[in-house]
Amino acid sequence: MGFYKGYFVSLACFAPNSALWWFFYDHYCVLLTNIVPVYVPRLAIQVIAAPFGGVTSAIITNPLDVVRARIQVEGTKFEQTVHQLWKEDGVWLVTKGLSARLVQSITFSFFLMLGYETIKRWSVLEEYKDRIRW
Hints:
Elements: H1 7-35, H2 42-74, H3 78-89, H4 98-123
Organism: Arion vulgaris
GO molecular function: branched-chain amino acid transmembrane transporter activity
Solcar repeats: 41-122
């Protein structure tokens, strides 16, 4: 059972983070596409939009991640953990561990999209390559 400690709170943190990440990644891709000149490669836009999406989603979900980490380390219940964190840090609980999370998110997002979009490009059939903005 110790293996699953904090499993559901992890899902409650990572699922919204992932959904927000993809939403903001797409939003920033569209925004950047409308701003940058046409000659800027699409991959450059994507590897810039990905960290922006990562930062935005990390900021929004950081309080959940703080609670998740505390539950997994101390084995306390959700309500008890939130109460204790609020008592210790007050409103500053939302910034706890944020700098490390942002560094991780920026790095992960950049390399994830660089790899993902590169593999996607390699996988496009020859007959469709002329229809894609590279």
